[in-house]
Amino acid sequence: MDYKYLIVEKKPHGILLLTLNREKSLNALNSEMLKELHKFFARVEDDVRCIIVTGAGKAFVAGADIGEMANFSASEAYDFAKLGMDTFMEIERCRVPVIAAVNGFALGGGCEISIACDIRLASTKAKFGQPEVGLGITPGFGGTQRLSRTIGPGYAKELIYTAETIDAKKALEIGLVNSVYEPDELIDKAIEMAEKIARNAPKAVEYSKQSIVNGSQTDIDTAMQIEKTHFGLCFATNDQKEGMKAFLNKGKTEFKGK
Ligand code: CO8
Fold first, then answer.
1. Nearest by Cα to 20 from 42, 3, 45, 2
2. Which SUPFAM superfamilies does this entry report, sorted A to Z (predicted)?
3. What is the Å distance from ligand 1's center to 76 Cα?
4. Of 112, 182, 195, 206, which is the active-site residue?
5. Residue 1 pLDDT more than 90?
6. Class of 200-248 per CATH?
7. CATH second-level architecture of 6-198?
8. What average pLDDT does the structure give for the chain?
């Protein structure tokens, strides 16, 4: 499928590299781009095992498009927030893990899209922040909810209330990113991680993601029930049989995702 603002590259082992490409506006998210992203994440094909999201040029995403938002009515703003939230929910619930390779500015909606991804890797040039209150608005693409679930309420409140931008080193310190790399290493490192994920049993990875994502939004008893259900479902897969047989025979297996 052809997109105006997305570049999709197929890498070996079922890995997709998705580049957000609105470079002149530092990849700021407008409605059109959000709709493309929604479409992309709603239709991930069966052979895909991991997706890496990055930004073209010097930014990851410098936020929602301020030019588009400036003259919104309250109901237009609500609809725009809903479009962003629905889109980021597609990312959070995507069948396969999504790695954000944060190459530069990840501000406002840019920070929010990164925390809808499963894992964040950053370049030394990455900058994170929720500058919304400095523009007279609140975060509106899930930031007030996902940020505190990711880094805890203390740091989330500090970032949101002060509107300050932090560098990659600080983002690592507060657990917002898993690792920091030199800019020219970032994509290779993200692909390396994606390949490790892709080598494992796809259904087991998918069920693990569902258990983590759905379980983190409910009470512990329900969450344990979710985990038990997914654990049981693994035993209905051929990959479980082949994986355990290979271990017992001291061999290796190539998982088929069935
Ligand atoms: N929206 C629209 N255009 C943008 C944005 C943006 N968020 N960010 C950058 N641009 C544009 C600039 O206007 C500029 O365009 P032009 O060349 O036509 O003047 C171009 O990108 C390059 O930007 P700069 O010249 O400013 O580049 P610098 O390197 O000097 O600065 C910064 C980079 C620091 C990232 C700076 O561009 C900046 O501060 N950008 C805005 C960051 C921001 O405030 N983001 C948060 C936006 S609000 C948000 O995301 C809310 C999400 C929830 C919405 C809920 C819906 C209701």
1. 3
2. ClpP/crotonase
3. 20
4. 112
5. no
6. mainly alpha
7. Alpha-Beta Complex (3.90)
8. 97
- Which sequence spans correspond to the domains of the chain? 6-198, 200-248
**Is residue 132 among the annotated active site residues?**
yes
CB of residue 107 inside a 6 A radius of ligand 1: yes
- In the chain the first and final C-alpha atoms are separated, in Å, by 26
Contact yes or no for 203/237 (Cβ under 8 A): yes
Q: How confident is the model at residue 165, as a pLDDT?
A: 98
Report the atom number in ligand 1 closest to the C-alpha of 108. 50
pLDDT, position 161: 98
Residue 8 near residue 16, CB atoms below 8 Å: yes
